[in-house]
Every structure is written in structure tokens, then in C-alpha cells.
């Protein structure tokens, strides 16, 4: 195997790019995206490139933003760029490092195209997949959002923050319709009424995939139907969860990298570069490394979305719970050992099964996991935390490991309370665990 197996980004990037001035309005930018059938426009200002995407548009409107606002008045993310002769693994590293969905492809200083997860998906070679891996093993339950058909579209706009986001319309536990971010964009860009029940907008029937399907079958479904997520059902056709395009891409490229390590000399330079950039992960976990869990950045977005929901609907507060895991041996905390990492992996794999579908779970930091509990007061959060702690202890009960679980819980209804909690858990949890061991 040689580097030719990894195509250059120029060969898979979208060549059509829509450029706009910062004096363009939100409505004009949306019209431009519709006309060119694109999901973003590039804004050039002060020798810098910014990106205005469908996600940014919907987030702006969900905050009751003015459609006639100038792009220069909106906080837009910088477009990270990579040279067109770089290969797709370098592009994947760049997307992950910046936490973005869009990557500019340049030739010198000239912008030549845009790369997204959809483009990376098209470059995946199916022969490198572990074809026996099942969809059910990768489901991220925390990503599933469902509503009954009598909900009003205007009331759920806050759930469309990412191009992969969708709302599944259910009757009982059966999916009867789906509304995606692109659907909402087309509705709003077309000036249509958004105050009707979800049945007025949803696509039906829903294309689904079974939990027993392989990763290859899921990839094929996404590619052939040009969709960004698969709705996963069990053998009884009951709704189980979602598996998104980016989750599949991360898994496949992770598998690809692992496989190449067995091919020796030709790729040694590439592997050394990746290991150096990742900080040699043999003994260190970074937040968001576990498949099926949010990373820290994604989790904080969900926290902010919950605050927006409370402000908009004056609804009940939510709670957060942070679980910090340590292994104790002879009154000392043991880290960077094989049992330690195996234990964290086992907890990460089971954590989505211990929460409600409406809850959010994330790998927070090294040995810590976080849970977001909507519509839950501190008393309910304590009950939840006690139950999860018992589940963790049962999970390792047969391993002979002496485990300590330290828990920090907080009920939150304001931005100040959230900021204070985040500072407290980042500053205090490690020392608290060490002291109790």
C-alpha cells in the first residue's frame, strides 16, 4: 500500500464556490445558496475568509435574527484551509482539529474548492472496512430527537444547528416522518409559513436501516440516497437511534489508519506525522475520542441550546452530572495502565444505554464523562447519578478493579450558573478525586 491509496483533496472537493461580500444580507445569502444549490457561501473580509452556512442561517433565525441583517454584523466562523495537494487523511485531521464541517481547498492563496464530510465519504474505499461491524454498535442515542406530529415547526427550530441534524416524527415508537436541516432551510428560504404541524412538512415514509446492518450497508445507503444520517430501527421496526455521516466517516478513517499501520515502510512517515500531531495517544485519552459520545465542544453546544430553550419557552431548568473515574490500588490512584483504559472504554460503550433518549452524554476530559439532563431538577439528577454510579460499579464488579466514581451535579437555569459549574468541574474535580483516594 502506498500514499496513492489516499487521494489528494483536490480530486474530491466541490469545485463550485459561492463568494459574497460582507455587505450582503442574510436573505440575499440564502437566495444565493438556493440558486446555486449549495449549503454555504464564502464571505471575504479583511484578507480573511469566513463561512456562512445553512446551519449558521438557521441558528441566526432561531435567535429571532433579522433576515435583512448584514453578514458583516453576524459572528461567522473562519474557514480553515488546506493546500490542494494534501491527501484526505490530512484533511480529516484538519476538520477534527478545528471542529468544523467545511474546509477550504487552496492553491497558494487562491480558493479552489470546499471539502465536507460528504466529499470524504465519497473517497472511502469499502475494502478497508470491517464488514462484520454492525450499525447497532455505533448508534449515538444522544443525537436522536423525536416529536409527535402535532408539534409546530416554529417551536422546534432550535434543534437544527448542524447539517446532520433532523427531527424524527413518531407515532408510539415508530418513525412516520422526518424533517432535516435542509428541509427547514428550503421552507424558510422559500418564505413559507413555519407555524403548521410537523405533518405538513415531514417527508414520509422514513428510510430506515436495521441495527443488524453492516457499516458497509450504511455507507451504501448514505451514498446512493445522498442523505446525511440513517434512521436506525430494531427487528420490530421500532425507532432506536441515528447514525450520522460524520460518525461513519470518523469510524472508517480511524479503521483505515489502523490498518495501514500493518503495512510497514511505505506509510511510516505518514503514521509518525499523525502520531506526533495527536500527542502519542498510547497513554492519553482526549475529550471526544470515544465513538458514540459527544466531544467537549459538541456537549457545550448542547448546553447552550438548552439555555436558549429555557429563555425562549420559560421552561423547566436542566441539570448536569459529571462522573470522574479513578482506579485505586494500595490507597493510590492508578492511571495510564491497561486496566484503566479498558475500564474507561467499557464505561464509554455502555453510557448511552444508561440515559434517556433526550439526554446528552459526552467524554468530557481524560477520565471524566458528562451527562445533560433536560427538564430535570437537582433531586432528579441525584437519582440519575446514583443509578449510573451503580451501573458503573456493576460493570467492573467481576474484574477485581477497585473503582472510585466522583460525581458533581448542578441544576442550571442561567448562563452564569452554567459558567460557574464549568469552571468548578474543570478546576476542582481532579483534586477532589485525588483527595478521596
Automatic annotation (TrEMBL):
* Domain (CBS): residue spans on this chain: 202-259
Sorted keywords for this record are: CBS domain
Q: Which PROSITE patterns match?
A: CBS
This protein's record includes keyword tRNA-binding? no
Under the heading Pfam families, the entry gives: CBS (PF00571), GGDEF (PF00990)
Protein's UniProt keywords contain Translocase: no
The protein's matches in InterPro entries, at most eight in alphabetical order, are given as:
CBS_dom (IPR000644), CBS_dom_sf (IPR046342), Diverse_CBS-Domain (IPR051257), GGDEF_dom (IPR000160), Nucleotide_cyclase (IPR029787), Rev_trsase/Diguanyl_cyclase (IPR043128)
- Protein name according to UniProt: CBS domain-containing protein
Give the organism, scientific name: Methylomonas subterranea
